[in-house]
Amino acid sequence: MLKKLENKINLLKTHPEGFPESGKRKGLRKCVITKQITLFYKFDSDRINVITIFDTRQNPEKLKENL
After folding, report:
1. Which tens digits make up the pLDDT trace of 5-55?
2. 37-43 and 48-55 beta bridge pairing
3. In a domain, 66, yes or no
4. Distances from the Cα of 47 to the Cαs of 12, 32, 54, 64, in angstroms?
5. I need a labelling partner for 26 at 20 to 30 A (CA). Which of 1, 17, 20, 39 fits?
6. Is residue 27 domain-resident?
7. In angstroms, what CA-CA distances link 26 with 1, 6, 20, 34, 66?
8. Which CATH number does the domain housing residue 42 bear?
9. pLDDT tier at 64 (50, 70, 90 boundaries)?
10. 65 in a domain, yes or no?
């Protein structure tokens, strides 16, 4: 799992617009690491901000608390 996370982060660094908007909040994007793990982030011209890494097996209401 850590290797997959590292690979996705490296991809985010070069192509932050390459992942879809989540629809949960304006400007928020999601990057699926594994079927169970999703990384939510925002970016601008200066930086990429990781908002949360969410285990999709959890109650979806928990995600709202983190966003």
Report:
1. 899 989 999 999 999 998 878 889 999 999 999 999 999 988 999 999 999
2. antiparallel
3. no
4. 11, 20, 21, 23
5. 1
6. yes
7. 28, 25, 12, 23, 15
8. 3.30.2310.20
9. confident
10. no
